[in-house]
Amino acid sequence: MDFFEQMGSTALGSRLRRLSEQMTGQAAEVYALYRLPFEPRWFPVFCTVARQPGQSVGEVAQAIGHTHAAVSQVVKELVRHDLVSIERGEADLRRSVVSLTAKGAALWPTLQEQAADVRQATEALLAESRHNLWLAMGEVEHALAQHSLAHRVKAVRDQRVAAEVQVLDYGPQYQADFKRLNVEWIARYFRLEPADLKALDEPDAYILQPGGHIWLAAYRGAVVGACALIKLDTHTYELAKMAVSPAAQGLGIGFRLGEVAVAQARALGARRVYLESNTKLGPALQLYYKLGFRKTVAGTPSPYERCNIQMELPLTP
Amino acid sequence: MDFFEQMGSTALGSRLRRLSEQMTGQAAEVYALYRLPFEPRWFPVFCTVARQPGQSVGEVAQAIGHTHAAVSQVVKELVRHDLVSIERGEADLRRSVVSLTAKGAALWPTLQEQAADVRQATEALLAESRHNLWLAMGEVEHALAQHSLAHRVKAVRDQRVAAEVQVLDYGPQYQADFKRLNVEWIARYFRLEPADLKALDEPDAYILQPGGHIWLAAYRGAVVGACALIKLDTHTYELAKMAVSPAAQGLGIGFRLGEVAVAQARALGARRVYLESNTKLGPALQLYYKLGFRKTVAGTPSPYERCNIQMELPLTP
DNA sequence: CGTATTATTGTAAGTACTTACGTAAGTTAT
DNA sequence: ATAACTTACGTAAGTACTTACAATAATACG
């Protein structure tokens, strides 16, 4: 038990499960108290049917928030115990329309009475606490519907990672890293082309001298990302050589590099930033989209075979 | 979903379950986010072992509040994934001592980091709500440990039933009920004896005239319980002919009748109330005990074959 | 010292749901 | 009218635990 205390809310899911098991276990005792030949898990289905007979399996599932499969199974059991009966739908023969049998109808008043007692007891239980469990659950469900847990955790991690990621300006000492990171992904998805090697081996001559820029991203002592901005003409720069090592992908490093490059292009007075990519590279395209790039219709021919999509980001001065 | 709104807290268990499922489902997404080859359900076990290696299966189960069987299964899976290893205990060969493998140890820092992120995210999630779910769960768990749900529901029901149960003084119109209720249980557990029939057929002559009393309990328009007080001598009354119809048992009707009888005995100046019963009748003996009766050592011989236990309640004037 | 009891674990089966999938009935497009 | 699809349902299998039971080791008792 001390696990929960130590882990705190990390184990929220486990703890919810444990409490729900405790509750359902005790629910069985409650039925025993009333000596009803009835299992707790039947309650939602039975109750829904009793209140409004003639609903189909799917409708009941909708009402209680379970799957149709679960309802189907419970209904089967209820039929076995002669508490409900099913008929084919009149207009629609696919539907299984459920209604109470005489035995089920006879049970219903007692069950309602018991439900009222349970309700009063749980309401008293909830009222005992300073923090109302029922309302708290409602709030958490609502919050999770807005942003999933994964989304929230990602936000936390991104913030933590952001503090640890450094974007560095290019220097000759990074040429090897620059080449390694790009070769890594090009070789993984395509074939290295001569045009690649020229720029990767001599970034100074092919990128920086013509008025371009290169950045690298360092994370925990390793260089894990790279990105370049190549000058095409006075008003146009190309975002190229974007690479993040697989181990560091998903940490928002590409986005950070892209932001820096776009900011620099804007500072240099560019009217648009252009890029070429391949539709096979889903996550990369998504990143470009998030940076504001949109697909261009017609395009300049590319020196790279692998490029089958062109995007651009117009910059308003 | 409107089921929850309509049923309110009656469905507390179901709702807890649903929320916990939602949480565990999203937990899987979180692991995917970190690209860890790790399943959420392993977490408590793995974490416990990583923190303090060399614990046995039973000890881990104790720490995380699951059964040893669950831990055994998870450990088996973790072994299959080469994350932990098990050895026989040194002093005690029954114990399965669990520790991390090299691969498991390598995973641990990342997992810790992830856990810290999850914790921060869930804490922010909880902080968003006015009613703190974590604290509310703690309070409810505590409250349920004090009194189980069944106990609470029983209290509610007893109160409701008490208002509907009426204890009636005997009149000739109840002779048939008085006989029926007693014959019912005597015939069920034993054989009717001549002494029974005398008192049941002519309660006036055999119970009331000699200075005794008879009460009946009515519940929802039916007479469902009976009980008599027979005068043995100036200072001693016998509690007898206690009967509650099976359908109404467990509603505290016997206790109500017993209380009335004992109060009357006290009002009549009795020093003790005596009764005879049979050890086969467990619930009845429990009722007598709750009323304050205790087993007597030696006893007067009984006219009834079925009596093998005698109890008495001393009354201080 | 042998036997009865207790402790520790693993395995099987159950629980109350889920997801995945197949079948039959209905609906829409050609 | 036929093909292609969508919908409703039931069945099977999975999930993450549980309880029940069996096997083996340790300990207590006479």
Structural commentary:
- Two copies of one chain form a homodimer.
- By secondary structure, chain A is α+β, with helices and mostly antiparallel strands.
- Chain A has 13 helices and ten strands.
- In chain A, the strands form two sheets. Chain A has a seven-stranded mixed β-sheet with strand order 4-5-6-7-8-10-9. In chain A, strands 1-3-2 form a three-stranded antiparallel β-sheet.
- In chain A, α3 (43-51) crosses α4 (57-64), α9 (175-189) packs antiparallel against α10 and α12 (253-267) packs across α13 (282-291).
- Chain A is elongated, with a radius of gyration of 31 Å.
- At the A-B interface, α1, α2, α3, α6 and α7 of A face α1, α2, α3, α6 and α7 of B.
- Chain B binds a DNA duplex (30 and 30 nucleotides) through residues 17, 21, 24-25, 40-41, 56-58, 66-70, 72-74, 76, 89, 92-96.
How would you briefly describe this protein structure?
The structure is a homodimer of 317-residue chains. Chain A is α+β, with helices and mostly antiparallel strands and 317 residues long.
Name of the CATH superfamily of the largest domain in chain A: Gcn5-related N-acetyltransferase (GNAT)
- The fold-level CATH name of the largest domain in chain A is Aminopeptidase
Task: Give the second-level CATH assignment, the architecture of the largest domain in chain A.
Answer: 3-Layer(aba) Sandwich
| Biggest protein-protein contact in the assembly | A-B, 75 and 75 residues
First-to-last CA distance of chain A = 61 Å
Number of domains of chain A: 2
Number of helices of chain A: 13
Share of helical residues of chain A: 40-55%
